[in-house]
What does this fold into?
Amino acid sequence: MTTDYAKARRLLARRDPVLRDLIREHGPCGLAAAQHTDPFRALVSAIISQQLSTRAAATIKRRLEALAGAALTPARVASIDDEALRAVGLSRQKISYLRDLCGRVATGELALDALQDMHDEAVVTSLTSVKGIGRWTAEMFLMFRLHRPDVLPVGDLGIVKAVQRAYGMRKMPTPERLTKLGEQWRPYRSVACWYLWASLDNKP
It folds into this structure.
């Protein structure tokens, strides 16, 4: 199901004057242009990117893709030995995460093709069963890979800071306060988040 971003902007602007001003400032929602990628590649990228700068993560991804050859698939990654994976810049911990991901895909425990048809919380449950994938990563997958319109990642520091600044709060909002604030954004909380990130001139 394709999100009607124009409708989402109208609804958010009508319900929330703070978001209305951000929408006027930043224009069309960029979620519409976010790239759909292969789910396995997206998860590999998420694991590699943990606690690394964008540049460092991109270098390791390029090296891994070169090592894997024509296709970055679970079977191909699983066939590469630890020493070769360490040589491209992966830590032992991240190698264990990739092994767990490949193993779960191979056994069918994690059915990547089925994620598209699952409810949001079911996707989160499936993905967080993999070592090294937490709720935040699963929520980013929902927003930017599956284009789900109503995700609110209350643990995202960018969203917390953006809400504090945009709404003039003295303290950073708690997850509970964010959840309560986000009720008025349903069913387009993902769209609201994009504008909040944009207000920081930031990407998630």
Notes: The chain has two domains: 5-34+150-199, 39-144. The chain has twelve helices and no strands.
